């Protein structure tokens, strides 16, 4: 038996249905699917539930993480942590799978090697068509550097603490785990004997700065640098200082009862003081903070002092404040339930977190 994990947030349901249909039509039925909805907004969430209800072979896990950064690693690990099958395949919800895909997965099972698959990418127009798998016209194919679609021995994946949950936002988590497994002397095999997986085109809305979801302006670059150090240090295990695959829905209910409320400004000392003495110091409390621009920020008096080289308060751009708070969460508080909103119209930040 093989567990197939799929992760989801606010994806077009037509794309999802094509993915489900391709898995429903597999020639080999010795697999189970666990779908993790990691924080979809209400409209997508409800429509997804209705779609899954028509697919009895899919188990749905819903995470109330709508106002958190997207963390694919954590979504995968939630399933991995409880996985009982000997093999574990990490797929994507925007793929169409060949009817013989699971059959071939079973033929490739290996206790010492992991296999990852070449993917055929469809154009926007081709993705909207309903065809038999082999009738789709592929625009281009992935190279052996694209490591997302991978079959693992479950015990091996668990032995290195799963996917690294440092990776939030977009990118690098799949490459990271391949590197760590290679650091652990495990073998990787790139399957390119034929295209068994097709990627459906979709707009990259999850990377849009105008999204209501939390967004860090430099997270992709930080992820890439973090990945480089995985190579340099030859690191094998991830999440050593944190629980991995940890999600308790009861903890998210606690966010409705705040113990301490704060209002701070975008003055550097205010932000640094709050992060150091509240976020990184308090324990077992629910804290709420609003960040607003200081009344002197960009005032004529402030600008005049700057021009005259007089001593002034040090202020941070609100995007930088946003990034600093999110970094504090990723690096130190990633297991804490939280809700984060940056209203770019009013330029106010709201954070509620269970420390």
UniProtKB/TrEMBL annotation:
This is Galactosyltransferase-related protein. Residues 131-193 form the Galactosyltransferase C-terminal domain. Signal peptide: none annotated. SUPFAM superfamilies: Nucleotide-diphospho-sugar transferases. Pfam families: Glyco_transf_7C (PF02709), Glycos_transf_2 (PF00535). PANTHER family: GLYCOSYLTRANSFERASE (PTHR43685), GLYCOSYLTRANSFERASE 2-LIKE DOMAIN-CONTAINING PROTEIN (PTHR43685:SF2). One of its GO terms (molecular function) is glycosyltransferase activity. Residues 4-108 form the Glycosyltransferase 2-like domain. Keywords: Glycosyltransferase, Transferase.
């Amino acid at each position: 038996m093989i567990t197939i994990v799929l992760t989801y947030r606010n994806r077009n349901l037509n794309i999802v249905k094509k993915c489900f249909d391709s898995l429903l039509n597999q020639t080999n039925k010795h697999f189970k699917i666990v779908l993790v909805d990691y924080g979809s907004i209400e409209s997508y969430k409800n429509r997804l539930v209705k779609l899954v209800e028509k697919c009895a072979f899919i188990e749905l896990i819903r995470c109330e993480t709508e106002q958190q950064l997207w963390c694919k690693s954590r979504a995968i690990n939630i399933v991995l942590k409880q996985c009982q099958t000997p093999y574990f395949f990490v797929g994507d919800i925007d793929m169409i799978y060949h009817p013989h895909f699971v059959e071939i997965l079973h033929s490739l099972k290996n206790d010492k090697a992991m296999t990852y698959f070449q993917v055929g990418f469809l154009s926007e127009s081709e993705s909207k068509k309903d065809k038999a798998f082999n009738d789709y016209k592929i625009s281009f194919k992935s190279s052996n550097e694209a490591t997302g679609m991978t079959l693992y021995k479950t015990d091996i994946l668990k032995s290195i603490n799963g996917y690294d949950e440092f990776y939030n936002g977009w990118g690098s988590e799949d490459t990271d785990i391949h590197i760590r497994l290679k650091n652990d002397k495990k073998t990787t095999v790139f399957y390119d004997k034929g295209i068994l997986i097709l990627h459906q085109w979709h707009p990259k809305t999850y990377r849009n700065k105008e999204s209501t979801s939390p967004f860090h302006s430099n997270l992709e670059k930080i992820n890439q640098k973090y990945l480089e150090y995985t190579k340099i240090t030859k690191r094998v295990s991830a999440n050593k200082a944190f629980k991995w695959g940890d999600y308790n829905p009861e903890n998210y209910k606690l966010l409705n009862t705040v113990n301490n409320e704060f209002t701070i400004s975008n003055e550097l000392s205010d932000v640094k003081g709050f992060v150091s003495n509240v976020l990184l110091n308090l324990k077992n409390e629910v804290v709420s903070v609003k960040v607003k621009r200081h009344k002197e920020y960009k005032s004529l008096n402030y600008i005049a002092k700057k021009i005259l080289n007089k001593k002034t308060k040090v202020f941070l751009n609100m995007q930088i404040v946003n990034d600093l708070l999110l970094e504090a969460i990723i690096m130190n508080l990633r297991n804490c339930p939280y809700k984060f909103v940056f209203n770019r119209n009013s330029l106010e930040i709201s954070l509620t977190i269970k420390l």
